[in-house]
Amino acid sequence: MSPRKIREFFIEKLIFLSGVASIVFVALIFVFLLKEGVSLFKTIGLGDFLGGRFWYPISDPPKLGILPLILGSLLVTAGAIALAVPLGIASAFYIAEVAPPRLRDALKTCIEVLSAIPSVVLGFIGMVTLVPFIKRVFGIPTGLTAMTGSIMLALMALPTIISISEDAINSVPGEYKAGAIALGATHWQTLRRVIIHGAMPGIIAASMLGIGRVFGETMAVMMVTGNAAVIPKSLLQPVRTLTATIAAEMGEAVRGSEHFYALFAIGIVLFIISFAINVTADLFLNRGKKR
Amino acid sequence: MSREGRRQTVGFGALLLATLLVVIPVIFIVGMIVAKGWSALSLNFLFTMPTEGMKAGGIFPALVGTIYLVAAAVLFSLPIGIMAAIYLSEYAKDNLLTRLINLSIINLAGVSSVVYGLFGLSLFVVFLKFGVSIISGALTLGVMTLPVIITTTREALRTVPRSYREVSFSLGATRWQTVRHSVLPSAVPGIITGAILSIGRIAGETAPILFTVAAFYLPKLPHGLSDQAMALPYHLYIISTQIPGIPENYRYGTALVLVGLVLILNISATIVRARYRKRK
Fold first, then answer.
1. Which of A75, A105, A192, B69 to pair with A44, CA 20 to 30 A apart?
2. Of the candidates A56, A156, A22, A81, which has an alpha carbon nearest to the alpha carbon of residue B109?
3. Would you say B126 and B120 are in contact if contact means Cβ atoms under 8 Å apart?
């Protein structure tokens, strides 16, 4: 073989290896979460971990039930999604179908700016504006509540929901719209009865990816939700999410303690949930493209 | 106006209202950070060490730490990401392996940032014994940013017209020669855009560096990859939650520097992209 061919052989091998690197990294993430997390289950059953009602990691013996954290995450996520999905879809329709070109560009820039703001900055802004606001409006002892978290997280999910929904709306074939208009439908009727159906798989995928983003969000939610590890009863009380628990406690957990392993076990739970959400969203996206 | 016409006006009005509810908070947030942080900004703020338990002085070590982290992370992930995109766009066949790779990329993009932190702690800090250091944090951030680099580079490669490749092949070039000399050069602006975007993203990440690199306060600047470092996002987290009595404009100033850095990167990415489009 000529030197050139040998060189190409190596370069192409390198390219192939980089290609499969993503698979390797996903596998590594899973393996290294398991490596630390599985040790927990030598001392605690899976049912007691997932269904345990008390999270007292530093009492003796520690109680490591993550049910309050799971419910905290679910509550905050549900609140965020209830806000972000309708707002996001409506904005996507406005930007894609109604706004004049100049306004459209300005709005899209605004959404891009929102998606670029780091989560710790949103957390900070939430702390100094929204937290006192919620406290005053509802007359409650603290503004660090699930609802505060939901509102901040809704902001973080919006760029994802809007941009993917907008893509889905734009990729609906122009003939659908032309056909509806030709039959005498108004633009609004066309949006509501025709375009929305064509864009539906993409909109569902957008919402799911928004949920994934919210569920895994860490910094902002940790800074505004108050972090009380109790089973939440209302949106107006402090809660603690799965992600915030890891971020807040890993610094103090002793390496090799049950507490340390439990935080990794929470990581496994988060990894599996985000895996499921992303794969499902991808199925919807592909279905939208095939049609 | 007809009934349907009125319905349309109401419907579009509702859509506009929703859009305003999204846009106004964004303008409010950015405006507030600029308005309240502006007074803190000075060369002194940017280029001196913090003093008096971080209640005064500057944010220089955090700024330096973030630059180190971002540079090391991108040096690691850019070559792998670009080559992975080349593989997917130029070499890969439509088979199970390719589907697995795509699935993995989607998952890397979806994994929670704090889970990346756990991964970095377990693999780089503990297992590979890199300790809490810039190298551990940078590798963690590097893995995290791979999906961004791969997807933007792949898009850039896909926009290169098929005819470029056909001409190259018909002149007897091998696949690698075609990629190297006819596909890659015209995809460079797209690749740069992706790289800048990913830098902007990792500069603002906090959770992945919490347990892998970040230091509360260091009296000295980091010397090498195995040192701990302060970082801007972590610094903002600390001074807004962990230490009472930090002057308000000091916090807003830190937030402004961080947001400014990220937005400048995003704007430059947009400019690169726009210039490239115009040229075509």
1. A75
2. A22
3. no
Cα B193 from Cα B267, distance rounded (Å): 10
**pLDDT given for residue B272 in this prediction:** 85
Backbone angles phi, psi at A100, to 5 degrees: -65, 155
Closest CA to A117 of B62, B67, B263: B263
Is A267 a residue whose pLDDT tops 70?
yes
User: Which helix H or strand E contains A216, and what residues bound it?
Assistant: helix A196-216
pTM of the full predicted structure? 0.92
User: Which of B8, B15, B117 lies closest to A93 in CB terms?
Assistant: B15
Verify whether the Cβ–Cβ distance B114 to A216 is below 8 Å: yes
Instruction: Name A82's Cβ contacts closer than 8 Å, sequence gap at least 6.
Output: A150
Contact across the interface for A278 and B107, Cβ inside 8 Å: yes
pLDDT of residue B261: 93
List the domain boundaries for chain B: 62-233
Most confident of B36-50, B128-142, B226-240: B128-142
**A291 pLDDT higher than 60:** no
Q: How far apart are CA A161 and CA A83, in angstroms?
A: 12
| Tokens coding A98 | 């109604």
pLDDT at A222 over 90: yes
CA–CA gap between residue A220 and residue A203 (Å, rounded): 25
Which residue has better confidence, A68 or B41? A68
User: Which residue out of A11, A73, A109, A219 would a mutagenesis test of the B interface target, given it has the greatest number of B Cβ atoms within 10 Å?
Assistant: A219
Superfamily of domain B62-233: MetI-like (1.10.3720.10)
Q: End-to-end alpha-carbon separation of chain B, Å? A: 46
R_g (Cα) of chain B, nearest Å: 23
Residue B208 is encoded by which pair of tokens?
């992945």
Distance CA A102, CA B156 (A): 26
Longest dimension (CA), chain B: 74
Encoding tokens for residue A143? 């503004």
With CB atoms and an 8 Å threshold, state whether B110 touches A28. no
pLDDT at B56 > cutoff 90: no
Query: Is B277's pLDDT higher than 80?
Result: no
* Residue found under tokens 């996001």: A88
Residue B60 burial by Cβ neighbours in a 10 Å radius (0-12, 13-18, 19+) = middle
Backbone angles phi, psi at B224, to 5 degrees: -150, -175
Q: Which helix (H) or strand (E) holds A274?
A: helix A258-290
